[in-house]
Amino acid sequence: MATNTSNKGVEKREQILECAKKQFAQKGYDGVSTRLLANECGVNLAMISYYFGSKEDMYKEILDRNTIQLKTDVAILQNPKSTPWEKLYAIVDVYVERFFTNKAMVQIIFKEISSNKRASLSKFVSGKMMDNFSVIKTIVDEGVKKKIFRKSDVELLIMTVFGTLMMYMNGNATCYKLVGASSAEECMNDIYKERMKEHLKNLLKNQLTK
Questions:
Q1: CA nearest to 54, candidates 121, 107, 99
Q2: How far apart, in Å, do the first and last CA atoms of the chain sit?
Q3: Which end of the chain is more exposed for a tag (fewer CB within 10 A), N or C?
């Protein structure tokens, strides 16, 4: 009985987090109150406080859970036999897959790094992003050292790749018109996902091939 109750508690907590993620993505942190969360998620205020402590703690957990961490999320990076090209292409695949299947999270991160209203949260998000950028830079530097890649402006290359993804995920009507889709929903399907992967890999190839 105790195990069933515990499992139900975990399930309820996960349901609240998923519901809250959608609300934060649509309205931003400041546009979502705990009362609104309670109403939209079908729970009471006491339950939100019990599971998460505060709105900020809940928000931070959502960010922490859903932000890609390359050092642990991309297994090929731990393989000493993997080439720099294999590592970069695997990173592209991971990011595009995550962005296309978790658009709400991308919108939350974009809002957070754009607003800079909450110093602690902005620092938290930017810190995780910089950790990943550092991993990518290390891979490129490795490729240059091994004479696999030619020298490039790594920082601007990283900004170009991620700027393309962020623009695509937040462009809405502009996005689907530019890529020739009939709707915002269509430009998130598997055809456009694979198109994005190919484009970003070609971008890296054009910039780094000797």
A1: 121
A2: 64
A3: N
Nearest residue to 12 via CA among 40, 46, 39, 48: 48
Q: Which one-letter DSSP state was computed for residue 16? A: H
One pLDDT digit (tens) per residue for the chain, 210 residues: 445 556 777 888 999 999 998 898 888 888 899 999 999 999 999 999 999 999 989 988 888 887 887 878 888 888 889 999 999 999 999 999 988 988 877 777 777 777 767 777 778 888 888 999 999 999 999 999 999 999 999 999 999 999 898 888 876 677 778 888 888 888 889 999 999 999 999 999 999 998
Count of positions (residues) in the chain: 210
Those residues with Cβ within 8 angstroms of residue 26's Cβ, 6 or more apart along the chain or in another chain: 107
CA distance 41 to 33: 12
CA proximity to 160, closest of 185, 184, 187, 140: 140
